[in-house]
Amino acid sequence: MLTYDEITKSETIRTYIIHADASLDALGYTEHSFAHVTHVAQTAGYILETMGFDERTVELGKIAGYLHDIGNLANRKDHSQSGAVMAWSILNDRNFAPEDIATIVTAIGNHDEGTGIPVNPVAAALILADKADVRRSRVRNKDVSAFDIHDRVNYSVKKSVLKINEEKTIVKLKLTVDTQYGSVMDYFEIFMERMILCRKAAEKLGLQFKLIINEQQLI
Question: Which domain, by its residues, includes 176?
Fold first, then answer.
């Protein structure tokens, strides 16, 4: 049975991630390459492990995190669904157990706002991990004067930390925002739908979601 580490060493998968990110670069989107997918994979694993899920479920969460954005290779629109289909093909070719494929495909197909629903714990962990990855280093545009609102919001976030409390009742997304580049209102303007999805994902895991910006609790 293939592990997360083995999946990350697949040249086929790495090629898909590189080209999917190149398409987003051409469209002016933030970074969706190895820094992002690795961060999401590790964060999803952290969430599931912290909440007491078994080792295999943690591994599936990490694999889903690593593969979750490959659908951008086909098109940004509906990339969660196309990514789910691609993941099915990749994993099926590698003789993954159908039960494990089902879990990963379901998570990837439900990770994006608009169509995503945290239908199982792996999907919930993937949603939280993905939406929490807001940071300055994801912005590709080097010309601050030419930033759109997405660039401003991501660039304004100097630090982003997702943490589950010791009692395993609350998950906090703590952001340190430099309001010189983007306001708190800007963040809500483009990310409100994502934060609602995070709240639903947290509830699926038996957690309460809290958003804290510059030490002020907003959700």
Answer: 4-217
Residue type for 83, please?
G
Q: Radius of gyration over alpha carbons of the chain, in Å?
A: 17
The confidence score (pLDDT) of residue 149 equals: 86
User: What would the pLDDT profile of 33-53 be if each residue is shown by its tens digit?
Assistant: 999 999 999 999 999 999 999
Mean of the per-residue pLDDT values of the chain: 95
Number of structural domains, the chain?
A: 1
Structure tokens at 203: 């509830």
pLDDT tens figures, 145-154: 888 888 999 9
Which DSSP symbol is given to 175? E
- Cβ-count burial 132-147 (b if 16+ within 10 Å, e if not): bbbbeebbeeeeeeeb
DSSP one-letter code for 209: E
Six-digit token pair at 210?
């809290």
CATH number at residue 117: 1.10.3210.10
Provide the CB-side half-sphere exposure for 128 (13 A, CA): 37
Write down the pLDDT at residue 155: 93
- 3-class DSSP state of 53: coil
Q: Are 190 and 150 in contact (CB under 8 A)?
A: yes
The 208-213 sheet, strands edge to edge: 157-164, 170-177, 208-213, 216-217
